[in-house]
Design a protein that fits this description.
This protein has 1 helix and 10 strands, in the order ββββαββββββ. It has one domain. By secondary structure, the chain is mainly beta. It has one helix spanning about 50-55; strands at about 15-20, 25-30, 35, 45-50, 65-70, 85, 95, 105, 115, 120-124. The longest helix is centred in the middle third of the chain and has 6 residues, at about 50-55. A hairpin with a 2-residue loop joins β2 and β3.
């Protein structure tokens, strides 16, 4: 797969979901928030739609977004505590790596729990 080209723009229940399907953006932290950036090398984090709610809602309408900060963003910045290394060259081969690499939403009604590995959402 070439970076920036999605092979599957719709979700198949029971099939694999690509991070690209969740409208992701690399983001850079700014003094009063953040802005979108094009490159992983400029990114401080990743913004994308919740995969569990995307499935439940059959798309983006009504689906909340998630923000995963990289390890270079301090614990004084919310959301916390999770911090991940952004490993890859682009959205399509991105893997989030940490001591506990999964993303688990304990305070959200959806209780989503998943990994991002090589640009694919893997349910935990």
């Amino acid at each position: 797969m070439q970076c920036g080209v999605s092979e599957n723009r719709h979700l198949r229940v029971g099939g694999s979901m690509r991070l690209r399907d969740l409208e992701p953006s690399f983001i850079k932290r700014e003094r009063e928030g953040f802005l979108r950036v094009d490159s992983i090398k400029d990114a401080d984090g990743l913004w994308f739609l919740c995969p569990a709610c995307y499935v439940a809602n059959k798309g983006s309408k009504g689906t909340h977004a998630l923000l995963c900060w990289s390890v270079k963003v301090g614990q004084d910045v919310t959301p916390r505590p999770g911090r991940w290394q952004l490993v890859g060259t682009c959205i399509d081969d991105l893997t989030l790596v940490a001591a506990q690499s999964s993303i688990r939403l304990t305070d959200s009604p959806c209780k989503a729990h998943f990994y991002i590995r090589n640009g694919v959402i893997v349910h935990a």
